[in-house]
Amino acid sequence: MAKKELTYAEAMAEIEKILGRLRSEEMNVDGLAAEVKRATELIASCKARLRKAEADVNKVLE
């Protein structure tokens, strides 16, 4: 079964949750690497969406 692709808002909300856990020190060392990996994936996804939106807007403005 394919994973549902998150919206930009959903990805940002998940990133905020991860940051909250890091700041509150809820995370143990064992889970740290997995959380950082997930946050990195989410950030890359958000950046790609922003680049696409920028390209679409520029195309419309031309």
Automatic annotation (TrEMBL):
* Official protein name in the record: Exodeoxyribonuclease VII small subunit
Please provide an example of a Pfam family that matches this protein in its UniProt record: Exonuc_VII_S
Q: In which family does this protein belong, per the annotation?
A: Belongs to the XseB family.
Task: Using the record for this protein, list the coiled-coil segments as residue ranges, or answer none.
Answer: 22-56
GO MF assignments: exodeoxyribonuclease VII activity
- UniProt KW keywords: Coiled coil, Cytoplasm, Exonuclease, Hydrolase, Nuclease
- Name the SUPFAM superfamilies for this protein: XseB-like
Q: What is its EC number?
A: 3.1.11.6
Gene3D superfamilies (alphabetical): Exonuclease VII, small subunit (1.10.287.1040)
